[in-house]
Amino acid sequence: MSEFFSLFSAMWKESWRDRIATFFSVAFPVMFLLIFGFIFGGSGESVKTAVVTVEYDLSDFGDVYSSLEEVEGYYHEVAVVERDRIVFIRNTTDEYYQSLLDSWEMSLKTKVERLFNRLNPVIVVKKKPLETTRQLTAFDYTLTGVIAISLLSIGLFGTVDVFSHYRERGFLKRLRATPVGNFSFVFGLVSARMAYGILSTTIIMVLGVLLFKAKYELNVLLFLLSVVSSVLCFIAFGALVSILFKKSEVATQVSVILFTIMMFLSGVYFPISFLPDYLRTVALFLPVKYGVEVIRYSLGFEIFTFTRYLFAVSIMFGAGLVFVFYTSSLILRKED
């Protein structure tokens, strides 16, 4: 046990000494959180609208008043429906709300025209709200993406740094002369990265609450399971990069390229549905896609079945565990 704590302590300190890994694991995600947080922090709120009318039932379009003088409080837009015209009063210049309000105006015009001409709708749509996870806002999407990117950088850069740099310095050869086994070394590395990942996500989430009033429907057990499985999968990915590229400089540069690709093609900052079909296919093979999905699910943002969540976490955890120890033992065995 003392051997494990010694290795854990050494790996923990090494994590903070590595400037590149620390930047991409903590500073870079926090920087993105602040930039996108101030851009999208106020967005995602539903538009507040009101309708002034005495002739029609337009309660589906917001609060209804019989006169403009009765309107109280702030509304993004107020529509005054008269007999032969509709006067729209828009009270915001925020770009986020413009398209939403434009759609609201078009729907309201269509409804008033139908009522004015006494036309009955061919299809009647009844809205029934589902009791499910709440809708993901632009800031929620960014926040969960920042968490996933932080975990990716912890697993990818941290592992590449340990195996590639340690191999060049001859540390792995000297390790063979000590009573420390391969399993203990890798377990110490993985445990330190797990703790690092939990600390990093905690910092990001606390900043989200303090600065941008973020709200989570946090399931602590599922969230920890998501973090652990994601970090384990990303560590295995980093170990694979260390095997394929021997020189530390090359391995680091390749890691930066892969990091950038996965950051923009894995649904981290915008939905994968925005991508062309061929890039959507590429996204299916990127581990970050599944990491960010399980994180969003554990925070109450993503909507899919619990069975799918368990399947994704099991695959990431199982494959990551097997692959990280296989690739790690392969790297260490080559140093014999």
TrEMBL record:
Pfam family, one: ABC2_membrane
Keywords from the named record: Cell membrane, Membrane, Transmembrane, Transmembrane helix, Transport
Cellular localisation: Cell membrane; Membrane
Transmembrane regions listed in the UniProt entry: 20-40, 141-164, 185-212, 218-244, 256-275, 309-332
Organism: Thermotoga neapolitana (strain ATCC 49049 / DSM 4359 / NBRC 107923 / NS-E)
MF annotations from Gene Ontology: ABC-type transporter activity
GO cellular component: ATP-binding cassette (ABC) transporter complex
Residues covered by the ABC transmembrane type-2 domain: 106-334
Protein name: Transport permease protein
